[in-house]
Structure formats: C-alpha cells, structure tokens
Amino acid sequence: MTVRTRFAPSPTGYMHIGGMRTALFNWLWARRNGGQFILRVDDTDQQRNLDEALGPILDAFRWLGLDWDEGPEVGGNYGPYFQSQRRDLHDAALDKLIDSGAAYRDFEPPEETRSQREAAEKEKRVYLSSRVSVGLSEVEVSAKLTADDAHVVRFLIPRDRRVSIDDNVRGHVEWDCGLMVDPVIARGDGSPLYNFATAVDDGQLQITHVIRAEEHLSNTPTQVLIHEALGHDLPEFAHIPFVAAPGGKKKLSKRDIEKYRKSPAFQKLFQLGDEVLSATGIDPAEQSLSPVMVAYYREVGFLPAGVLNTLARLGWSLDDKTENMSLQTLLENFSLERVVKASAGLDPDKLMSYQSYWMGRLSADEKLKGCVDVLVRAGLVAEHPDADMLALVDAVVKLAADRVRVFGDILGMDEFFASTESLRYSEKDFQKRVVKPEQAVDLLRELRQLLAVTDNFTADAMHKVVEEFIQQKGIRFGQVAPALRLSVTGKAKGADLFPTLELLGREECLKRIDRAIGTAESMKVV
RNA sequence: GGCCCCAUCGUCUAGUUAGGCCUAGGACACUGGAUUUUCAUUCCAGUAACGGGGGUUCAAAUCCCCCUGGGGUCACCA
C-alpha cells in the first residue's frame, strides 16, 4: 500500500515553527517510503480572507523546499482539499452514522448538559452523557425536527469497550470508553466538528499514517471509534512530541511571545532579530513576526537548510553523532522508530550553530545574493545594484565571511555602505578607545599623515606603515589599532583591519579619520 | 481534579526493544589554553547527567513495582 501522509493546517495567517516540524516529519515519511504527502486545509470555520490566511503557510513550505503532491494549487484525485468544500462528504458520513445508530440527535438544551457536567465535577464523579435523546422514538425525533428544535449530533460511545492503538512513537496506548463523554460531531445545521471531519477526511483521503503532535493523543480514541463506525481501515498513528519553548518544557506558543522576550535562553535570537527587522523597516514589537513563526527566520536571513536541520534534530536523531544533515540526508535516513518520546525545547544557540554550518557551505553567489537582498531591504543599497556595488558587497562578504552567520548580519557592517557623514559611531566605544587614552588622538593624527602618502593604499602596504610606525614610536599595536578601527568603521569590532582600510579606499579613510579627530577634540574640550 | 503521556550532562541527544562492550558517547552552550600584532574564526583540553526508593539478577541507565517531578488534554475551536 502506498504511504500517504497529510498535514492539515488551519489557515491562521502564519506558519508555526512547531507545526512546521510536524509537517517536515510527515513529508519525510511520505518521501522516504515513495508515498504521497498531502496538504489539506482545515478551514471548517468560515474563513474571512483565505488567501491572506493561507498564503504565509504555503510560503513557508515553499521556502523550505517541501512540496506537496495533493492540496491547494496542485489539486489531486481525492479533492477538494479545503475542508469547507467537503461538506457533502461529511453530510453523507453523518447520515450513515445516524442511520446505523452509531450517532444520535441530542435535543437536550446545552445549559442542561453543562449543569450536569458541573454537578458531576463538584461531586468528583465521572461525567457521562445523559443520553435522554437516545430513548426518543423515530416519530418523536421527526416531530422535533419538523418543529425545528435545536439539537446537536453526538457520537454514541460504546461504553463497555476499550480502545487502543499501537502508536509508532508511543507504543501501546489504551483508553476506557466507559469514561468518555459522547462527543458532539456536528452542530444542529449539520456542520461537522473537528474530530468527526478529520476522521471522515483522513479515511476518504486514504491517509495511511497520521503523524501529528502529541497534544492530539487525547483526540485519538474518538477518532478511532468514528473510523470504525464508518468502516475505514485504521491509519497508523505516530504522536510526536511537541516543540517546547527554550529553557522550558511547555509548548512553544504564540501567546507567550512577551514572556519569551524576557527569557535568557531566547535573548540573543530576539536581539539579532530586532536589529535586522528594524533595519529592514519592520517593527519587531508589532508581533506580526516572532521566533514562533517560520517567516521570522526567513526575514532575519536564516537559511532553509539551517532551519530544517534544527527542526529535524528536535525529537529525532540519525545516530549517536551525526548533527549536520541536509534535506537529502534526512530523506535517506528518516524513521519514525527513532523519534524521541519526550518533548524537546527549541535551542536558539543550536539553531545558530546549524545555521552557521550551512552558511559556511553556501556558494559565494548565493551568499552574495542573500546579502544584497537584505541590504536592499534595509535601504543601504539601491535596488538593482550595479556591478561596482555588487563587487563591493561581494568583497565585504568575503572579508567578513566568518561574521555572516545569517544574511542579516551583513547589516552590522554598514560602515562599508555608509558615507562619511552618515557613519554612526558607537559612543561608548569611541570614548573608550579614542577620547580617553592619553595619546590616542595625537597618534591618530600622525598616522593619518603617513597613510595619506603611501604609494599604494593596499592592506599589505598599510600593514607595513603601521608596523614601522609603532616600532619607531616604541608602542604596541594595541595602542593604535583600536582607535584607527573605531575612526574608520565606528565600531570596536569588525573584520581584519587592513583589508577593511583597503576596501574603503584612501580618500574615505582619511575623511573618516579627520572626522574622528575633530569629534574627539571637541569632546575633550568639553 | 479525571484521563493520557513523559523522565540520561544547563540544552538537543546516543545507549533502553534483544541486561554485561557504559569507569555513560556525541553536539550546542560554558570554562581554560593555542593560533590570530584587535575582534571573530579555527584547533586542543576541561567541567557536567542515568529524579528517588524498593525488588529481579552473578550483573540494571537498560526488566518489574511504588513514589516524586514535569507536561498534554478535558468546547456546539482546530
């Protein structure tokens, strides 16, 4: 039998990173077994703007390179792939269940049901459906239907049974039906509810493996029972652990973003993200983007490979030592057997480590393209840059290769793209390395004269000049380099100093040094 | 609270199905050192875990029981 897996997102306007991991495992399992991966959109609730709500989800799949064999945009033989358009299927299944007596129309007022439930809770007794409507005769039921009495359809739980599954991750799990409430499977108007619609759809779509997050485990007995009543072959189940928040054990959730912002484990990621996002004109506080969403990583300049690698290693391992895995490697080795049972916290440090690894293996062309893209978005480089600009960016990227872990890091090297006037100095560092040290400004002035007259303004030549200068003065390199770097780049850290000077060019360097000297002196006077 | 799930370094994990090769391996993070005339990179080294208690056995991280702890879920949401 062909393996068929599915991912069934509700169109929420964003793709959750944990959901993406579930989707990845589904995709991997289908592809590994030469089967099909299906995207079904669970939009039972009337969606306001489907494009807006579904677009970001499909974008996330495309970005990561996960294709789907059936679903939105591509169609397929088991469609429609929007749950809202499958109503006739649900209706037919509902009729079947009612006719066979597996489900019943419940006319009990909701308030009554609720108060019974509350009473049971108060008395610490298990609540079970009253089933008063089950005793109604056919004539009574049709009378009530004709009178348009409000009702819901409930599935009749066989209370004398136990349901069990042999979960591909969790092993044998069993439930006592005698403890289960008859679940509502459809509203009075016949519109289906999740547990029911899912069973109908999974059956009709011939899904062989339901791979989903652990929080769905408690829905499983109901769905199994509905599958049975509908005469479906039961799919295999695999309940994978959910993705937890960094440093915690709780499910990673969009609602807790503000909490995450303050969490030490998340700090560095947020800081990086805030810098890149605000530089590219996105307000990070607006919450339209956060590390809970896949799009966040794309905007900050992560690589699909880095994100994919991180996701795959969250709850799964190939063996006792393999860490860096491409999608291809994952594809060749993925197995449900090696999925871990315990929930796993997303670790931003490890994410960054995988990311750096894959960034390091990226071709020069792709790296350049990614960096240019961010620079353009940040307005540091004009759209459709000319060859000179491309060459400059390329040179910067190569010069600072180790520093560009995500494309957004290139924004931290704005000194190469800023003019003398617009270059910003880190005030604190400027004080510390230029203003405060005794002779810093004097040394800088002398050095400036030397740099102004070297034959070639190359890294090597400059290196030699500075070398001779400090020997002659009897000082250490550390007494001139920091001030020089700060004057020219505005920062205390950066790529190799001399190649940086060369890249900036003599004229620009001298202007910046002059500006720095001027600024430092005016500060000293005050 | 009911039901269900889970439990190895700070974190992600290997080892648990077939008990001995485990004085518990790897990775990230952290600390120290080397290289780098700055920062970063790179390299080397180090710190660091089987939640507790009972069994079974010649032998238990691995099997059984209990406890503790953590988590998920309990809608006419999906």
How do you describe this structure in short?
The protein is mainly α and 526 residues long.
Mean pLDDT: 91
Compute the gyration radius: what is it? 32 Å
| Global outline | elongated
Largest sheet: 3 strands, antiparallel
What separation lies between the terminal Cα atoms?
Answer: 82 Å
Number of strands: 11
Residue share in helix: 40-55%
Number of helical stretches of at least 4 residues: 21
Strand sequence of the main sheet, in spatial order?
3-4-7
Percent of residues in beta strands: 5-15%
The low-confidence runs, each spanning 5 or more residues with pLDDT under 50, are none
Structural class: mainly alpha
Structure in words:
- The structure is a single chain.
- The chain is mostly helical.
- Helices cover 47% and strands 9% of the residues.
- It is built from 21 helices and eleven strands.
- The chain has helices spanning 17-32, 50-64, 87-100, 110-122, 138-146, 194-204, 220-230, 257-262, 264-279, 294-300, 304-312, 327-333, 348-360, 364-377, 387-399, 427-435, 440-453, 459-473, 481-489, 497-504, 506-525, and strands at residues 4-7, 36-39, 103-106, 152-155, 162-167, 171-176, 184-186, 209-213, 236-240, 243-244, 344-345.
- The strands form five sheets. Strands 3-4-7 form a three-stranded antiparallel β-sheet. A two-stranded parallel ribbon has the order 1-2.
- The protein is elongated, with a radius of gyration of 32 Å.
- The mean pLDDT is 91.
- The protein binds one RNA strand of 78 nucleotides through strand 6, helix 6, strand 11, helix 13 and helix 18.
